[in-house]
């Protein structure tokens, strides 16, 4: 037995070392967390629980290491390492995309959905779409332009409070505030952006983080204007002046009476959903176009090498500012939809956690990838909604997802691919 | 003499307390190929980048076609018709070859894009084969070609090159210098920073030698090639 063990020692030594190290880490990690339990002013030790967990970790790591030493495991490992930093993939210019068929089908399905979905599903999907919008906006800032914005939620708040405050103080409705909020958020983006965009990386992240908190604190504490923690009510949208309530305010005709339908509170959500869907499609379209235009290329180039960009004639401040403002205005739009969907706004919806969530969407989706962001937005917002009982573990779920992601797909769910430029003359010419 | 394409007048440049350039004066005439040679850390790259105000010079003047461009921002300098092939190439790694070229033509707009792109592919046929490849995956030589092509896409009047031969095999260096010679023959003004003195000086009408941030010698390419000091210091002494 011993001879056998010694003979194959070269194969064992690696995994055993790995397992030992993993066990040590587990001991350090779980020892205080699991092993020591507070009881009143005293505490109890639970060495057996720690031993169990550490044992599981050691065994798991050992098996994993051994499995990776087999021929099959090696192939796996290699694929892993290979896939790691291949970055962007360039698709030949003329390659026909499956999207031509899939996209219309998806849009059709999305248009039909509200008429068959129940209210709960509808509200969940609306929330998902709002996060798609947020993800798309932040994707321009972080994914394309490479500006780490940790206070993105501020622009979302500006959109939401824009609707509520505009209604409260100026009597403006959903349709006026929708474009106005986008503009407002963009202006806020510019005001923040001008001084800040000369900074790089960490500094930018910290300043934007601070900005997000400042906006939230102002909303929370300016009682006379924003209603403080109690928040404000936000108006519902109208269809050509028709309201969706049971009874119209100011003696108008509500939507259902006008069309001779029986009242159904769902109408409001169906309407919000459809408008939101259109806005999301529009933003998707605009983004897709922008990426192919010089400005889109400029964003990415700036992310890759600022100095080279500047000596290529790009005004880096303007280019960054445009990304920042566009991202902000998208968040402003999302904010308006959020406010009208909730019917009220208060500062608790705009905490740093929200910024982190949106950032997680962008990172998980794949920096710069549109499809990835859409999928990630739904996964991260809809899944916890549907798994209500699991809601407590939401943050844990994010953490696990992030770690797995960084190991498996460091470039995000969907790897960004870019289409080759169409050659002006046939390939073989000249 | 006519107005020079590029002129440095008694330029001083500091990095904090460190002085990188001391009273540097030099001229590049229209249509001329000029090289600047010097050892590591002599200040060659600093001089080249100071044209783009990265960093800004502390005192002295930089003139381009008679116009004072001292302290002008990098992106504004680029719109004047000065293009550079920076040290270490600095191509955009995640972009395809074609997109890198398109970045180059950003300052002059789309008017000549198709035509220029074809011209670049004729100048560097290897790039044509790799047009849809990510720039990061190109070989060093190909990356250098791309960096030069990208700079040329802006139809510059003055092309600045910082060590185009850095880290390349002799054959590729030859190829690149051959291309530069063609460009010069077509009337392009070139200002070349090089460690590879023999190649650079053979290509150039004139050359400057920089030592510790000072211009120590100036002469025609041939003069410098035969100068015993230059031979000792930069040509391996034979
Ligand atoms: N950003 C910087 N901060 C401080 N000092 C710098 C900076 N850049 C360059 N220097 C210093 O300025 C001097 C000149 O550097 P420069 O890069 O211009 O040399 P070079 O002639 O291009 O050298 P090489 O041939 O190695 O590229 C060096 O002493 C260098 O340490
Ligand atoms: Mg240098």
From TrEMBL, chain A:
Keyword Cell membrane: yes
Recorded GO MF terms: branched-chain amino acid transmembrane transporter activity
Stored InterPro entries: ABC_transp_permease (IPR001851), LivHM_N (IPR021807), LivM-like (IPR043428)
Protein name according to UniProt: Amino acid/amide ABC transporter membrane protein 2, HAAT family (TC 3.A.1.4.-)
Domain High-affinity branched-chain amino acid transport system permease LivHM N-terminal span(s) in chain numbering: 17-112
Pfam families, A to Z: BPD_transp_2 (PF02653), DUF3382 (PF11862)
Protein source organism: Azomonas agilis
Superkingdom, taxonomy of origin: Bacteria
Membrane-protein topology: Multi-pass membrane protein
Cellular compartment(s): Cell inner membrane
Record keywords, A-Z: Cell membrane, Membrane, Transmembrane, Transmembrane helix
GO CC annotations, alphabetized: plasma membrane
Transmembrane stretches, start-end: 20-38, 50-68, 98-117, 124-152, 172-196, 203-223, 267-286, 321-344, 356-383, 390-408
PANTHER family to which the protein is assigned, alphabetical: HIGH-AFFINITY BRANCHED-CHAIN AMINO ACID TRANSPORT SYSTEM PERMEASE (PTHR30482), HIGH-AFFINITY BRANCHED-CHAIN AMINO ACID TRANSPORT SYSTEM PERMEASE PROTEIN LIVM (PTHR30482:SF20)
UniProtKB/TrEMBL annotation, chain B:
Recorded superkingdom: Bacteria
Homology family: Belongs to the ABC transporter superfamily.
Keyword line: Amino-acid transport, ATP-binding, Nucleotide-binding, Transport
Molecular function as annotated in GO: ATP binding; ATP hydrolysis activity; branched-chain amino acid transmembrane transporter activity
Domain ABC transporter: 6-237
Annotated InterPro entries: AAA+_ATPase, ABC_transporter-like_ATP-bd, ABC_transporter-like_CS, BCAA_Transport_ATP-bd_LivF, P-loop_NTPase
Keyword Repressor: no
One BP annotation, GO: L-amino acid transport
Name this polypeptide is given: Amino acid/amide ABC transporter ATP-binding protein 2, HAAT family (TC 3.A.1.4.-)
Database matches in Pfam families: ABC_tran
SUPFAM superfamilies referenced in this protein's UniProt entry, alphabetically: P-loop containing nucleoside triphosphate hydrolases
Keyword NAD part of the UniProt annotation: no
